[in-house]
Amino acid sequence: MKQALQGSGVRDLAMARPAVARDRSASRRANLSMVLRLLRDEGPRSRARIAEDTGLPKATVSHLIAELLDGGLVREGEAERDRGAVGRPGQAVEVDGGGIHGLGAEVNVDYISLLALNLRGEVTFERRTPLDVRAVGPEAALDAIAQLVTEGTAALRAQGGNVVGVTLATPGAVDMDAGIVKYASNIGWREVAALAGLRERLGPLTPELHLENDAKLGALAEYVLTSADNVRDLVYVTGQTGVGVGIIAGGRLLRGTGAYAGEVGHLRLVPSDQPCACGRRGCWETTIGRDALLRYAAEPGDTVRDPTIDLDRRLAELRDRAHAGDPRTLDALGRIADHLAPGLALLADILNPRLLVLGGHFAYFGEHLIDTVTTQVRDLTMAPDLGGCEIVLSQLGLAGTARGGALLALDTVYQDPTAVMASA
Amino acid sequence: MKQALQGSGVRDLAMARPAVARDRSASRRANLSMVLRLLRDEGPRSRARIAEDTGLPKATVSHLIAELLDGGLVREGEAERDRGAVGRPGQAVEVDGGGIHGLGAEVNVDYISLLALNLRGEVTFERRTPLDVRAVGPEAALDAIAQLVTEGTAALRAQGGNVVGVTLATPGAVDMDAGIVKYASNIGWREVAALAGLRERLGPLTPELHLENDAKLGALAEYVLTSADNVRDLVYVTGQTGVGVGIIAGGRLLRGTGAYAGEVGHLRLVPSDQPCACGRRGCWETTIGRDALLRYAAEPGDTVRDPTIDLDRRLAELRDRAHAGDPRTLDALGRIADHLAPGLALLADILNPRLLVLGGHFAYFGEHLIDTVTTQVRDLTMAPDLGGCEIVLSQLGLAGTARGGALLALDTVYQDPTAVMASA
Fold first, then answer.
1. SS3 call for B27
2. Domain HTH iclR-type spans what residues (chains A, B) (predicted)?
């Protein structure tokens, strides 16, 4: 986990490199950030090697590491014998920050959730609560999210932790800078000033707040996990009531000019007359989204369709039925596979990712989906052998989005380590 | 033109930033590169401002500029009064290099072409020759391209010019590193070792050779032109016998894991039974590509369908007919618009670019295409108001691809200015 977080993920995603330093304190900040990001992205290493990798003088590096040690952001690790070095092995330094936490809070159609990661990449808080978000409306949903954030923050602070930020994740198109959810049809939000609402509810001790689309955060979380394998191009497909994709291209999150990139749920790809929350009919997500899966798989009275039961339990139940060979469940998964394939093929042709990662409910049905889907997509794409693309299941299940939010919140520490060093 | 080349285009596209300097000569190269790219991307400025922008000491900047002046890569420009400066205005420095040329050589279905740009962004050589590339086969096509490159290089060298590189552009998927065209169905090339073939034909004085897909180079050329407007996300649609797209996302070219990104010509988007060069039927490019346009617009014996006539003249003739209100031509353009729209909508939904640029033959029919297409795409995309995307015509027509190739060839100078300074 920790290794993954250090494996180059958030690197280029959140913000540009620090500007050229204009004064001494800016230069110190930039250097601390450079060293900390090096340790995250390239792994533990000795002071000598840090000097070599950054081009900074050895004395400067020693001073910077001393500051980071003081601030609790790094720790001494194991001895590292530098490549080819003859003398005494150097002491490696690695990212620490076990008491520095980022939070990801997700609002989706049928639940809200919160996940905290510390700087080491360890999950330090996790909770998911069923909620009919569309029915209760934005104000009540923000109440519930604020409550969850308050509980999580209080628990982490009670242990002496420092919560550096919270990312709110929602489906649909968001205006990150303004903190506004522009349009999320499945939860019925339109022009909701989500961050202002959250800030008001959380009061004076509010950590820094961010807002991002669920699919983009899911892609970020997957990218951090897989970056150890040198994957630079990845498409993450959410499996929720709605379906969207998050695109990592060349190691960077693709947002598009209006942050609408990846809004594929409403493409018309499969013949269908099913009404969609957007007001149209036959949108792709009505054929592969959660409602479609549950509708294909079970009658209305079935427990798997009871929204008051935690989603994870219901999906696990469906997985059990598939394992047991239940014909209706298997038929439902076959239909999902058939409807998934044309969209995945399209994404493979246009984006040629190294990985197509299926998240959310898709991630529950590995063996019953992946082979069928892969075969179909292979037939449909133009590039031979899928152009080097592999279709895989998310290892994060329903937690991917909140995890991506926590990573984004933590990235501010990498951009400016001094912000948390004062308080550490 | 010059302004455009300096306007931030190739910046992130070709290669990563220089590695941290490990020795003095590497550090000098990196600094020369940084200064030259600053002048290209941000425009002319004084030495004082260069020092401020790069963080380099003023004395170092003066020394670097002296070297670049010596090498003919920059020149003294007009006096620049620094913002807020009270004293004497500084002398601005700007990119020069009128004698340093990059070449772009394009092989397409019905022509080959060559275009040279100098470092100032001026077109210094341009030629296009009709050729039935599929019929003559790869060897003869490479003969013809080598002949064109030899002529262009000789002409530029006769004026004392320095040709730093040649980019070969072809349709289809290419392996840049190996210099191999993997598969280009419309010209019938499969696993053609194009760069090795070209190198053999050009002999000992061969400039550095590059290989890239036509749509990606077209996107690069468009991006350089539009970057002045702060466009960071752009999709370029080729209008050739085949149709592909080049994607610029967040200011960088999106290639995909196997360089197949943008291979959209074979999507099935429009009901059609037309046979495609790829062996299938009904591919998108068979409904909007050059053959479709000419088939819709004219009978087989018509001059616009005579491949021995230069393509530009034939397309200009069709444009004249459209202007004159010829019903068959207008009907053909209406069909092209109808078939373009679903694909453009798909690209807008997935990538949310700021600009969708229509190149090649599409660029000839502005008023007869753009409004109809825009209206249809607006209806089909999910994001309100096209998500901030604008559909525009390429200003480069058939020259975009070769121009992108010339830019890519020139980028090596920005990466390592010392390579040409020795010989300047």
1. helix
2. 34-76
Can you tell me which residue has the tokens 């992108």? B404
Contact A252 B255 (CB under 8 A): no
For A165, other C-beta atoms within 10 Å of its C-beta total 22
Contacts of B255 in chain A (CB under 8 A): 250, 352
The per-residue DSSP string of A366-413 comes to: HHHHHHHHHHHHHHH-SSGGGGG-EEEE-SSGGGHHHHHHHHHHHHHH
Subunit contact B257:A53, Cβ cutoff 8 A: no
Q: State which residue of chain A sits closest to B256, comparing Cα positions.
A: A352
CA distance A399 to chain B (A): 24
Beta bridge partners of A211: A168
- Report the share of chain A in percent with pLDDT over 70: 91
Provide DSSP, A140-205. HHHHHHHHHHHHHHHHHHHTT-EEEEEEEEESSEEETTTTEEEEETTTTEEEE-HHHHHHHHHGGG
CA A38 to chain centroid, in Å, comes to: 21
Put simply, the chain B residues between 319 and 378 with a CB less than 8 A from any chain A CB are 346-347, 349-354
**Largest Cα–Cα separation, chain A:** 73
Q: B90 is written with which tokens?
A: 């500084």
- B21 interface with A at CB cutoff 8 Å: yes
Asked if A67 and A363 touch (Cβ cutoff 8 Å), the reply is: no
Find chain A residues with C-beta within 8 A of B245's C-beta.
350
A52: closest chain B residue by CA: B22
The whole-angstrom distance between A348's CA and the closest CA on chain B is 8
Residue of A223, A243, A260 best to disrupt the B interface, most CBs of B under 10 A: A260
CB contact under 8 A, B256 and A54: no
Q: Do A387 and B54 touch (CB under 8 A)?
A: no
CB–CB of A351 and B352 under 8 A? no
Positive or negative, the CA dihedral B177, B103, A250, A358 is negative
Are A172 and A183 in contact by the 8 Å Cβ rule? The answer is yes
Residue A213 structure tokens: 């689309």
Contact criterion met (CB below 8 Å) for A377 and A345: yes
Q: Does A246 touch chain B (CB under 8 A)?
A: no
Model confidence pLDDT, tens digit, residues B298-346? 999 999 999 899 999 999 999 999 999 999 999 999 999 999 999 999 9
Q: Which phi and psi angles does A398 have, rounded to 5°?
A: -80, -10
Q: Helix, strand, coil % (nearest 5) of chain A?
A: 45, 20, 30
DSSP conformational letter for B360: G
Q: Residue B258 and residue A383: Cβ atoms within 8 Å?
A: yes
Q: Are B318 and B366 in contact (CB under 8 A)?
A: no
Residue B135, chain A, CB below 8 Å: the answer is no
Burial pattern A288-315, b for ≥16 Cβ within 10 A else e, equals bbbbbbbbbbbeeeeebeeeeeebeebb
The pLDDT tens digits for A293-334 are 999 999 999 999 998 999 999 999 999 999 999 999 999 999
In this structure, which amino acid lies at residue B24? R
B234-237 and B245-249 beta bridge pairing = antiparallel
Q: What is the pLDDT of residues A242-264, one digit of tens each?
A: 999 999 999 899 999 999 999 99
Measure the N-to-C terminal CA separation of chain A; round to a whole number of Å: 24
| Domains within chain B, CATH numbers bracketed | 2-95 (1.10.10.10), 100-217+401-421 (3.30.420.40), 229-398 (3.30.420.40)
Q: Are B114 and B103 in contact (CB under 8 A)?
A: yes
- Out of B252, B278, B388, the one facing A257 most closely (by C-beta) is B388
